[in-house]
Design a protein that fits this description.
Keywords: Membrane, Transmembrane, Transmembrane helix. It is a multi-pass membrane protein. InterPro entries: Ribonucl_Kappa, RNase_K. The chain is mainly alpha-helical and 86 residues long. It has one domain. The chain contains three helices and no strands. The longest helix is centred in the last third of the chain and has 34 residues. 13% of the residues are buried.
Length: 86
């Protein structure tokens, strides 16, 4: 099996992806609920629902990265177990 990233990078990407998913989903729910701090000022987005959908879409992208990096971590573990020791 082929690996594309190093084991350290795969683990780091997985951890950052988990935090990114949590943050973006929470932010998406906040915009969807029209939390006053996020939606009542002049510089805030005009369409909070569209902003919430964008946050949820970005969370899906992070979930794809999480899946990819988790698979890379598993491939590294599988390859390290199957190496011939001299």
């Amino acid at each position: 099996m082929k690996t594309f990233v190093s084991p350290g990078n795969a683990v780091c990407c997985s951890i950052l992806s988990v935090f990114g998913i949590i943050f973006l989903v929470a932010l998406g729910f906040a915009f969807d609920s029209r939390v006053e701090v996020l939606t009542e000022f002049v510089t805030d987005p005009d369409d909070p629902e569209a902003t919430a959908k964008a946050c949820f879409s970005a969370a899906i992208v992070y979930a794809c990265f999480l899946g990819f990096c988790s698979c890379q971590t598993l491939v590294h573990r599988y390859n390290s177990r199957n190496q011939i020791q001299l």
